[in-house]
Amino acid sequence: xxxxxxxxxxxxxxxxxxxxxxxxxxxxxTDEIYKADIAITDGVIAGVGNDYxxxxxxxxxxxxxxxxxxxxxxxxxxxxxxxxxxxxLVVPQGTTTVIADPHEISNVLGLHGISFLKNAxxxxxxxxxxxxxxxxxxTSFETSGFDLQSYDLSMLIDRPWVLGxxxxxxxxxxxxxxPVVMSKIELAQQYKKRIDGHAPQLxxxxxxxxxxxxVSSDHECTTPDExxxxxxxxxxxxxxxxxxxxxLDALIPVLLxxxxxxxIFVTDDRHPHDLKPHINGMVRTCVEAxxxxxxxxxxxxxxxxxxxGLKNVGAIAPGYKADLLVFSDLxxxxxxxxxxxxxxxxxxxxxxxxxxxxxxxxxxxSVNVRWIERSDFKIKAPVNDDAAQVKAIQVIPNQLxxxxxxxxxxxxxxxxxxxxxxxxxxxxxxxxxxxxGNIGRGFVRGFNLKSGAxxxxxxxxxxxxxxxxxxxxxxxxxxxxxxKLQGGKxxxxxxxxxxxxxxxxxxxxxxxxxxxxxxxxDDLNRAAASLGCTLNDPFMAMAFLSLxxxxxxxxxxxxxxDTARFDFIDIFSDVK
Length: 576
Known about the structure:
The chain is of the alpha/beta class. 25% of the residues lie in helices and 28% in strands. A hairpin with a 2-residue loop joins strand 28 (553-556) and strand 29 (559-562).
């Protein structure tokens, strides 16, 4: 029996399958580092101590052995990669477990999207657990492909690979005891599953109510004060370092000055360029800032496992899964070896495990748009003058939060036009799930395009089609190209497609390898830069402009939304 073999290996009565000898063991349970052998049998750590022998032995020669890393909250779809390609990038960096929130694909394909991803993660050298999307759609102020209710989630909540309810973005619904929201919370509590949070800038008594309702974490903290308040109330702090939202540097003072037992590393949304390094890069940054290496490793491993109730994961001790990393030093945090279930799956940054990339199952076409015309991009001005004042969306680099910018735009033949001198561009969101004909129209500042247009079907959270441009013709042509691609990203100038990335799976995911996706992402960014764009990743920034749960002003297929008022606004009214 497997148990007998493990016990006999632990006692030294028979050889272990593998022994890592002469290791500097990083013990996140006791916050110390010491010399030891690590005996592994049947993928489990059987014993830790001295003089173990194995059928196969690795002499660590004093190198450091840590538990492997866990990403506590990630949208796999945001990488635009199939899970197999995602694993090829992150496993060699030391991440062997991820907690995935299939929120993005669920907004497009509903339960079928979750099923598609579940099938796609089978056979990977990486454990993929799931938290069920709590807000599909995130609000009633946008149109998504599906509307997942508690009875939909009840079909999956008891599965062992489901660890909880994903980020509860509708904190207003929680505070107001909305019956739809509360039924989902009650479902998770009934099955004793975690409830993750998403509550940017929520504070005081409202935050107390949010936590008291059962929400136990948050990954939207951008300042130390916000993070400390949530830690004080017993919530887990998910420290995020994504592509668009980079909060680690701002929150390092909290990690250095407070108890870190309730701190977790997450990536949330990352493009493929930013998957190397992965969680190991966050660990390195913290150590460079002065955090103890053992504490940093614990945040990246045991803390996350304990939060989600993953038994015998995240530490090096008898009975724990043999998911281990071997480092030559605790400064660079570049794994020389990555072990999953006691097997070496990566070495010196290269994956050794052969992944079956054949897709199990398919996803239907998801770009369903009412016939569009060039005139659909026009914005009627309320005045007959040659200029008008509008409220524009002001992008803040490396933040999801936006601000209201009081702008002056040109009026031509009764229609408001961009003002390139002040970087005021037109933005439209076209509903692409139900051919409803909904189009939200407004203005945005921060992209600095001088000509052309950029467009994408990646637009959080409902993933409608978002187009930003300097003129209606290029915006129209960009939208038409996305429809023909059945989803993706595109840059157009003077009617010509300069660069594109097809994303045929739900309009979110490529069916190509990561090299293809990275190359085409580079091409897109270079093409946008050639048109004057000053943002490093304009497509990631654009993707969050339609997310009405993030302050301060956003745009959906239904119009311009002000989160302070929690309602739509007329961009021409109330201008200071």
